[in-house]
Design brief:
Helix content: 40-55%
Number of strands: 6
Largest sheet: 2 strands, antiparallel
Keywords: Lipid degradation, Lipid metabolism
Protein name: Patatin-like protein 5
InterPro entries: Acyl_Trfase/lysoPLipase, PNPLA_dom
Radius of gyration: 21 Å
Family: Belongs to the patatin family.
Number of helices: 6
GO biological process, one term: lipid catabolic process
């Protein structure tokens, strides 16, 4: 299973310092970001919201919580959670050791990493549906990875090629959305494919860019 939470064992901690224009030095001691945000989608939305609060001139003057004005594409890294290898009957007998290590896996890490990732998607689905803007939120992921495809450190030419094929397959898959009652992903009726949805998002972004450029030229012309 691909686990962001274990990434510090693959990517070593890194230190650097940065000096601002006033000579103040800030130190950074960093580990893999998945430790804090296994699904960074909510952070991205928060950063945009912060720019709106700060009245960034590059953004249209909208309300900070106007999620219906946002286009969000969230792409997962894949997992093999469909395997459903844990259950409460088995877990009820585990002690500390079994929670940390069970048949080559770490149930505790799996639970923390998967739950933090899934809760972000659950939150976004609820908010966008509440605002009748569910078509503005696109989540693309797969939970049926097996073998080398689910590994974080197999970078052979063959495996990378298989990952490319998998990505192309995901483009052809239907758009899915989280069922808030069952927690399962279901195809969206008349939602088309992921590829068609991405093209729709790209057109919306292109139209927005043209509109902003047009307004910018108009402002320059009146100055």
């Amino acid at each position: 299973m691909y686990r962001h939470l274990s990434s510090p064992t693959f990517f070593p901690a890194h230190y650097f310092s940065n000096q601002d224009g006033h000579g103040r030095v800030r130190d950074f001691n960093l580990v893999d970001g998945g430790v804090a945000a296994n699904n960074p989608t909510l952070i991205a939305i928060s950063e945009v919201t912060k720019q709106i609060i700060n009245k960034n001139p590059d953004l249209l003057p909208i309300k900070p919580m106007a999620y219906d004005q946002l286009l969000v594409i969230s792409i997962g890294t894949g997992s093999n959670t469909s395997e459903q290898k844990y259950n409460s009957k088995t877990a009820s007998k585990w002690g500390v050791i079994s929670w940390l290590y069970d048949d080559g896996d770490s149930p505790l890490i799996d639970c923390y990493s998967d739950s933090s990732k899934d809760m972000v998607d659950y939150h976004n689905c609820v908010v966008f549906q509440a605002l009748h803007s569910e078509n503005n939120y696109l989540r693309i992921d797969i939970n049926t990875l097996h073998g080398n495809l689910s590994s974080v450190d197999v970078s052979t030419k063959e495996n990378l090629g298989n990952l490319v094929k998998l990505g192309e397959q995901l483009l052809e898959n239907p758009v899915t959305r989280l069922n808030l009652d069952t927690g399962l992903y279901e195809p969206v009726e008349n939602g088309g494919t992921n590829e068609a949805a991405l093209k729709r998002f790209a057109k919306s972004l292109s139209d927005e860019k043209k509109l902003r450029d047009s307004k910018s030229r108009s402002k320059k012309g009146t100055n």
